[in-house]
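During the reporting period the student researcher (J.K.) took over the structure-prediction task from the postdoctoral fellow and processed the backlog of single-chain submissions. One of the processed entries is reproduced below for the supervisory committee.
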Amino acid sequence: MTTGDDQSLGAIMSERRQLINLAYRLLGSLAEAEDAVQETYARWYAMSRQQQDAIEVPGAWLTKVAGRVCLDLLGSARARRERYVGEWIPEPLPEPTQWTTGPAGGATADPADRVTLDESVNMAFLVVLESMTPAERVAFILHDVFRYSFAEVAEIVGRTPAACRQLASSARRRIGASGTRTTPAAHQAGLVRDFKQAWQAKDISALIGLLDPDATVVADGGGLTQASLHPVEGGERIAHYLAGLFAKASGTLAVVERTVNGRPGLIAQQDGRTVAVYAFDVAGDRITHIWAVLNPEKLRPWTTG
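J.K. obtained the following structure tokens:
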């Protein structure tokens, strides 16, 4: 292969980080994001060298194709999630220093493959994105998060720039109506630590004091492990529910503080294997939402070795 070919391949593959970042935000699933990016590259390499050379900005072409692939996947994902056993929660991401997209058992992936963790991937934000139509989600993420112009978004979504502007505006209203907020990480970490201690002690009163009276717990087992099929609502009810869960757990269960989608969270480990990931949303000095991911298929990036 010539030096020019090497440079061309390097330029194409250097877009992988951006594509993974985009696809994860659009799909809420790391596994689906990886599939979307793989399909995007497959379409690139299916073209002749002459066709590739005719594309002035390969990165823009890859982003456009990835966006369209994700738009198609979002449509089919909605139907699949309607058949999902219990509640569906976006796939949680561990802290970047311990998470890669490389194959299991393989060499450490390049840091460029890791999803950048910021407020646009925290669990509360991703849950709101799930309430949007596929077109709203794509238009909003591309414009508001990745700063693409509405003219560029229009090429991906297949609508006019004016229509895409309306889609993004509608998405912003959904976010505003959801009450999604940004809490200083240090403050959330303190509340999560207090919650962990109260939970391990099965201290019902302390748990009630940390939970908002209207708090909600949503669990995702995917039908593959035991999990509540419906949200548990109300601080007092949640406190008793969680204390009961911990009491039933084996003595080998360890609860560990970890970063979940860029925010302070908890994981439960049994014999070194992650069996649950807990993401939190807080308001003031109370926990308002807990998302518990127990589906083992979604916990693959959390267990190493």
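The committee noted the following: The beta strands are 211-220, 232-233, 253-260, 263-270, 273-283, 286-293.
J.K. will present the remaining backlog at the next meeting.
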